[in-house]
Amino acid sequence: MSDIEIESQLISFVEKVKLNEQVWALGAEDGGFVVCESNQFADTDVLLLWESENAAKAQCKEEWAEYSPVEIALDAFLDDWVEDLNEDDAIVGLNWNDDQVCVEIEPVGLARALSE
Prior knowledge:
This protein is α+β, with helices and mostly antiparallel strands. The protein has helices spanning 3-20, 53-57, 74-87, 107-115, and strands at residues 22-27, 35-37, 45-49, 68-73, 91-94, 103-105. It has one domain: Trna Endonuclease, Chain: A, domain 1, CATH 3.40.1350.90. It has 4 helices and 6 strands; from the N terminus they run H-E-E-E-H-E-H-E-E-H. A hairpin with an 8-residue loop joins strand 5 (91-94) and strand 6 (103-105). The radius of gyration is 13 Å and the shape is globular.
């Protein structure tokens, strides 16, 4: 993914999330969330987030068939999740798709973009 594609996808994600004031993750019945290994950083977990329920729901298949979209209010994400992700040395992946790629970003960087 080129730098221009990454920036374009980040801007699109931020605009949609700010408009709807929510992000979406895939959650399990036990309260866990879909986390995968980073494609860019060794030994780094990535919490996957989507800009819409439909985009998240589209990934509820194969190994994630038992998961379902979970809404996270933007305020809760900024106030609670970002700090927890930083403490866990995790990053976030935006709009994982069928090609199994996504923009990976530090939680603080995403929070900064969402707060502008």
